[in-house]
Design brief:
The chain has 130 residues and is of the alpha/beta class. It has one domain. 22% of the residues lie in helices and 44% in strands. The protein contains one helix and twelve strands, in the order αββββββββββββ. It has a seven-stranded mixed beta sheet with strand order 2-1-4-6-8-10-12, covered by helices on one side. A hairpin with a 2-residue loop joins strand 1 (32-36) and strand 2.
């Protein structure tokens, strides 16, 4: 059980580092959207984002992110992330991540789709069907 938690922590740390590096590159290129608690802080380029008064959304490099009801959504490099009802969704490199309901987390990387709901702990990370 502890091994699994440490593995998840390590993977999460690596993903956050990658997202920060990619976000820094996007800022230099000028395509970024950041919405925090319903207020769009940055909106440059084609990326879009939306958050309500309780959430945060970040979209970079032609991506879309939406977060509602205490959630966080991050989309990078042509991806879509949607997080609703106390969830987290992260999509990177032409991927789609959707997390819905109470503590769910969805992460999709490299042309993948991840779906998580009702407390799901990671969603599925699968390439889309041809």
């Amino acid at each position: 059980m502890w091994r699994r938690r440490l593995a998840v922590l390590g993977i999460t740390t690596m993903m956050l580092a990658a997202m920060m590096a990619l976000s820094g590159m996007a800022l230099a290129q000028g395509d970024v959207c950041v919405s925090i608690k319903g207020d769009t802080k940055v909106d440059k380029g084609e990326s879009t984002c939306y958050s309500d008064a309780t959430s945060k959304a970040v979209a970079v490099n032609g991506s879309d992110a939406e977060a509602l009801f205490g959630s966080h959504a991050t989309a990078i490099n042509g991806s879509d992330a949607t997080a609703i009802f106390d969830t987290r969704a992260t999509a990177i490199n032409n991927s789609i991540a959707e997390a819905v309901f109470s503590g769910s987390r969805a992460t999709a990387i490299n042309n993948s789709v991840a779906l998580a709901n009702v407390g799901g702990g990671g969603g599925r990370n699968e390439p889309p069907a041809p």
